[in-house]
Amino acid sequence: MNRKPLFGIFSKADAKIGVPLKQILFQIKISGPMMEMTITQEYSNGSDSPLECLYVFPVDVDMALVGLTIETPSKVIEGVINPKEKAQEKYEDAIAAGHQAFNMQYDEGLNDIIKM
């Protein structure tokens, strides 16, 4: 299957609707053969209501994701690594309770794509 993934944030209800990227910032630290890169992306939901979205981001297969911080206007959320099934269950429980929630995982068809 030859599909070309899109990158960014999209409405889960309609993947054709993208959330506008306002800015992106890269901070890079190099130490010998190692590199640490922090990517800050700012998106803006122009709607007054919350959106359930899909975030799609490319990663090199030799890279390791070691942290995730998400800032919303009302809170800062630090990512926690859980087994896939537990993470999905916690996500669904949070959404059902009306809370903001995020669940990140590698795309099963494309190992170099992270979806959240």
Rounded average pLDDT: 81
- Which strands sit side by side, in order, in the main sheet? 2-1-5-9-8
* Overall form: globular
Rg is 15 Å
Beta-sheet strand percentage? 35-45%
The biggest beta sheet, please?
Answer: 5 strands, antiparallel
Oligomer status: single chain
Order of helices and strands: EEEEEEEHEE
Structural class: mainly beta
Extended strand count = 9
Q: State the share of residues found in helices, binned by percent.
A: 10-25%
Please count the helical segments: 1
State the low-pLDDT regions, or none: none
| Termini gap | 22 Å
Q: How would you describe the overall organization of this protein?
A:
The two termini are 22 Å apart. The relative contact order is 0.19. The protein is mainly β and 116 residues long. The model has no long low-confidence stretch (mean pLDDT 81). It has one helix spanning 84-96; strands at residues 8-11, 18-19, 21-31, 34-43, 53-58, 69-71, 76-78, 105-106, 113-115. The radius of gyration is 15 Å and the shape is globular. It has 1 helix and 9 strands, in the order E-E-E-E-E-E-E-H-E-E. A hairpin with a 4-residue loop joins strand 6 and strand 7 (76-78). The strands form 3 sheets. A 5-stranded antiparallel beta sheet has the order 2-1-5-9-8, with no helix packed on it. It has a two-stranded antiparallel sheet with strand order 3-4.
